[in-house]
Amino acid sequence: MKKKDISRRSFLKKSTLAVTGTALIPSLLASKKVSAKDANKNKMFCYQCEQTMGGRGCTRIGVCGKTPEIAALQDLLIHTLKGLSIAAMAGRKVNISDVEVNRFTCMAMFSTLTNVEFDPYRFEDLLFQSVGLRDRMIQKVKAAGGTVDTSSDAVTLKLKPTLDGMVKQAKAYGLFSDPDVNPDIRSLQHLLLFGIKGMAAYTDHAAEHDQEDEGNYEYVHRALAALENKSLGADELLALVLECGEKNLRAMELLSLGNSGAYGDPVPTPVPLGAKKGKAILVSGHDLIDLEAVLKASQGKGITVYTHGEMLPAHGYPNLKARFSHFYGHYGTAWQHQRKEFDKFPGAILMTSNCIQKPKQTYKRNIFTTGTVGWPGVTHLSKKNLQPLIDQALELPGYPQDQPDMEVLVGFGHTAVLGVADKIVAGVKDGSIGHFFLVGGCDGVKKSRNYYTEFVEKAPDNSIILTLACGKFKFFKHQLGEINGIPRLLDVGQCNDSHSAVQIAVALTKAFDTDVNGLPLSFIISWYEQKAVAVLLSLLHLGIKDIHLGPSLPAFITPNILDVLVKNYNLTPIGTAEGDLKKILG
Prior knowledge:
This protein has helices at about 10-15, 35-40, 70-95, 100-110, 120-145, 155, 165-170, 185-210, 215-225, 235-265, 290-300, 320, 340-345, 385-395, 415-420, 420-430, 450-460, 500-510, 530-540, 560-570, 575-585; strands at about 270, 280-285, 305, 325-330, 350, 365-370, 380, 405-410, 435-440, 465-470, 480-485, 485, 490-495, 520-525, 550, 570-575. With about 575 residues, it is of the alpha/beta class. The chain folds into 3 domains: about 25-260, Up-down Bundle (Substrate Binding Domain Of Dnak, Chain:A, Domain 2), CATH 1.20.1270.20; about 270-395, Rossmann fold; about 415-585, 3-Layer(aba) Sandwich (Rossmann fold), CATH 3.40.50.2030. It is globular and about 65 Å long. Mean pLDDT is about 95; it is low at about 1-30.
């Protein structure tokens, strides 16, 4: 096997949009065509997540729970961030890069991800901040002798003074507000926009650790500004899309460095799924800094802290586990079950990042938000003052007795896996390890996601399953045994830990002197929201082919754009678990 060089330039040279579809994708998206006329006649239009209504778009209320009001405010916020980005790029031409502008742009973009911010008054604040920072940057540029292009009204827009006024104002800036855009160009614009959102979320997480890269901030501003450039064609947009994948790799690397620097490299750790008698706090989401703040605030108060959802991998960080004896186990599964699971939890709950669903009235007093997360009527806390969370935990009954249960293993980040690289290489060479499957990504409510459970169950006994993100909850309790002392199921971590999966793949390419496509490694990806879009773009940037994507294809990808991805990367919709395994393994 020889190393191959797959560059963005070679991709663009091969790609063309002068196609009408191929036999590889017959009618895959035929039922998903959305016209600007159809989109604009509705109260709202959003199709950024996998579960969008009917595989076409949410038009009355979001499947995620967002209202037309929130959808409109998000659209308006993104438009103002484009104006801020144009001003920021003008600033860079006169050697001005503003730290507050850089961080705010990514944080504000993060707030527009699926299942993050639902409070209209928080968006009102973000909108005023966005326009205020834009105008301040324009003044800085002028003072430095520079100029700002004002051809886009994103640069000159004046916000209406009231929330209702902003909602009405936003109608002009929806995803389909310009009916004259070519559908394939619009598809690329939206693929870029949703990729930027995911990359911005990772960048925001990393910035909390003071892990930052000026090049990433420059890209976010350049790419957002480019979305206001109506003259850009397919090749320019494709280049920006793939660059988003490149910059997202850096963002995830910075986040990995921040988490490991603060809490140590993850190590294999058993996590109890049971409970201890006593008061309880549940922490969900992704933000380890917020988890640490909870652990500090609850220390010595007779409260046990549990994780939920994508916080499960936090138990693998030794500097969290060793410092806090009341950091115990994991409760529940993935985000989409939270209404049922939170309703039964006998303590207080903190949501730290994307994943929140509309709380039931039965536990609304018990749930709190922090960071970018918000829900109307739910108390929002600063990590510097978590006392209301502590007080509520002490007021609630907690667990009346110990509830023992099984344990699951976490902590197989790249450092841990590469620590047994010699066993892995030897296993592949002697045939005891036949194949690696990365079965990871998002979970969700569709029954078709049971494909991922079935895939893992039917994978050959000589295969190793790497998994990350909340998609693991389809099979995280499965006991798959070991190969040469290596567990067959390796939990790499959160979606935020996708960098670890890439590092493992890169290390294997060096061990076997090949590229990723030459490894006995297959990517079986489930997607739901915009972080997953950014991760997919990172895999494409690396030149990885034959990715199996499901449970359905993005509604914002037109047949022609999908055709380009199929031709260049053999991006493949999932089929049946048995059929896909047979095809992969030959």
